[in-house]
Amino acid sequence: ATPMSVMVGVGKAAEHGILIRQGEALQLAGQIDTVVLDKTGTITEGHPKVTRIDPTEGVGEAELLRLAASLEQHSEHPLAQAILAAADEKQLERAPTQDFEALNGMGVRAQLDGAILRLGNRRWLEAEGVDLQALARAAEVISNQAGTPLFLARDTQALGVIGVADRIKPDSRDAVNAMRAQGIRVVMLTGDVEASAQAIAREAGIDEVHANVLPEDKANIVSQLRREGRHVAMVGDGINDAPALAAADVGFAIGAGTDVAIESASITLMRSSLNGVTDAIAISQATVRNIR
Ligand code: ADP
Ligand code: MG
């Protein structure tokens, strides 16, 4: 495309809330045949809420939530925001912790009263030697309802599980259908567990799902698709999506997402709707056609 027609295309995209950083991305967008979507904050609203609190024997619900909020007070993850909002609603005081650490795709850890507290997914806590058997039933109920179970442990002692659930954006399903109508293969990637991932995928009308994906593996999956000859767009909102956004032919960051995601992507969707992806593809194709 000529520089002039690209400028026109970029301007047209901007009118649709699609901010294109380099003209090259506009031209690449027209060739996309595979769209890889992050789940949390991309297909879903990204404002999850606490839906269930299941402590183990001898632990109170308020105590479980208070400890979880104490751990999450320095985290920016959407799951942390859900825990903090629930604790604030019940006016629970957060305890000061030491040595806070957020482990991408696993959870958060900090010291409190000489013990190590951990809040995160089953795979990580079990690898740390925590027996979660007593919480298996509660966790199953949470995931079958499209929620994410977050387990809390003090050292190796399980204290309980908290269910956090997010809603799918009202137009995600239509956007996925529109992508299909453009002949595009749609794939969902998430660090979340299989059952929760499948429940959201069903609602969005996506049948190709990779769950339990660590952040570095999101980028590997994108690169693998490219090696297979696909022209890949990645759409994401989080720090954990940044490597995959950079690895794609075209990275789309959700405008309401984190700065790191926006910096790693070549296109930002100011309206946070997945319809921006199909709009960008259509505008790109029209731009390239016009100059031929
Ligand atoms: P997604 O790919 O869906 O955006 P992430 O890679 O950010 O998900 O997280 C994957 C999983 O890691 C979450 O489902 C959760 O179990 C755990 N996790 C990540 N960050 C946190 C946190 N701040 N608190 C608790 N659990 C977390
Ligand atoms: Mg996300």
From TrEMBL:
Q: Which domain of life is it from?
A: Bacteria
Where's it found, cell-wise?
A: Cell membrane
So what family is this one in?
Belongs to the cation transport ATPase (P-type) (TC 3.A.3) family. Type IB subfamily.
Q: What is this protein called?
A: Copper-exporting P-type ATPase
What organism does this protein naturally occur in?
Marinobacter nanhaiticus D15-8W
Covered part of the full sequence, start to end and full length, is 567 to 858 of 927
